[in-house]
């Protein structure tokens, strides 16, 4: 638990150093909230206003413990590891418009996290999100996949407006906005740590794994000039 708190505190401190980077965490009013993020639910409030109906908030419990199999006697990991950004989302089966207040006017890079909704494996998710001339889209299936979308957007009158469309059902776990002029530094210090947190093992699980270096003592064959040019060669070892 101390490792989790340390990672969260680090991300919160780094985000604070880039005060113009906004993190919007989509979910229910009671689901876990990412440190330093603004909560967005199905209900409109002073920061997030929805147009059109049918938007719903959903959440899954974060259960990252390995579970035992009574028949084999072995423990198995969860199908996917969840965290405070990926355990919850907002979804709809039709179009919707979202206005995020408090985003200073200007040009932004927008990062969208979509996926890990749980449910049926045959569910097809389809999202098309637009903000002015900026647009991103993705189509994927199942309960565990996570997509990262990126597009350009412009906030006007201190508001960022987005339009969501779908041919099936769309969902959003989180949205991050980075001023265009800060992108290079914020990408390394804010965005990448958050994306790594969502795509790799939790810190307490990662600490259990150790890398064991193995030295290949078998001699390699003499590569042909063609194999060297192609960068590809196949051989067997006894």
Secondary structure topology:
Elements: H1 2-17, E1 22-26, E2 38-40, E3 48-51, E4 56-59, E5 67-68, E6 75-76, E7 88-92, E8 96-101, E9 106-115, E10 124-131, E11 134-141, E12 146-155, E13 159-165, E14 170-172, E15 174-179, H2 183-199, H3 203-206, H4 225-230
How is this structure best described in words?
The protein is α+β, with helices and mostly antiparallel strands. The chain has one domain. It is built from four helices and 15 strands. It has helices spanning 2-17, 183-199, 203-206, 225-230; strands at residues 22-26, 38-40, 48-51, 56-59, 67-68, 75-76, 88-92, 96-101, 106-115, 124-131, 134-141, 146-155, 159-165, 170-172, 174-179. The strands form four sheets. The chain has a five-stranded mixed β-sheet, covered by helices on one side. Strand 10 and strand 11 form a beta hairpin. Residues 1-18 have low confidence and may be disordered.
Keywords:
disordered N terminus; 5-stranded mixed beta sheet; alpha+beta; 238 residues
Short description:
By secondary structure, the chain is α+β, with helices and mostly antiparallel strands. It has helices spanning 2-17, 183-199, 203-206, 225-230, and strands at residues 22-26, 38-40, 48-51, 56-59, 67-68, 75-76, 88-92, 96-101, 106-115, 124-131, 134-141, 146-155, 159-165, 170-172, 174-179. The chain contains 4 helices and 15 strands.
């Amino acid at each position: 638990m101390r490792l989790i708190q340390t990672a969260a505190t680090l991300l919160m401190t780094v985000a604070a150093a880039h005060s113009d980077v906004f993190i919007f965490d989509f979910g229910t009013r009671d689901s876990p909230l990412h440190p330093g993020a603004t909560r967005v639910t199905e209900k409109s409030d002073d920061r997030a206003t929805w147009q059109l109906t049918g938007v719903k908030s959903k959440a899954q419990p974060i259960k990252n413990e390995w579970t035992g199999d009574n028949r084999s006697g072995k423990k198995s990991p969860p199908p996917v590891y969840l965290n405070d950004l990926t355990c919850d989302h907002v979804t709809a089966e039709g179009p919707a418009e979202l206005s995020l207040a408090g985003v200073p006017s200007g040009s932004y890079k927008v990062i969208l996290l979509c996926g890990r909704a749980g449910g049926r494996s045959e569910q097809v998710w389809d999202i098309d999100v637009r903000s002015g001339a900026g647009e991103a889209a993705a189509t994927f299936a199942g309960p565990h996949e996570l997509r990262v979308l990126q597009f350009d957007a412009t906030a006007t009158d201190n508001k960022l407006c987005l339009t969501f469309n779908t041919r099936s059902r769309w969902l959003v776990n989180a949205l991050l906005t980075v001023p265009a002029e800060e992108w290079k530094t914020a990408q390394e210090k804010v965005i990448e740590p958050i994306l790594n947190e969502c795509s790799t093992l939790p810190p307490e699980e990662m600490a259990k794994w150790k890398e064991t270096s193995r030295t290949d003592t078998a001699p390699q064959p003499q590569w042909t000039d063609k194999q060297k040019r192609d960068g590809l060669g196949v051989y067997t070892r006894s």
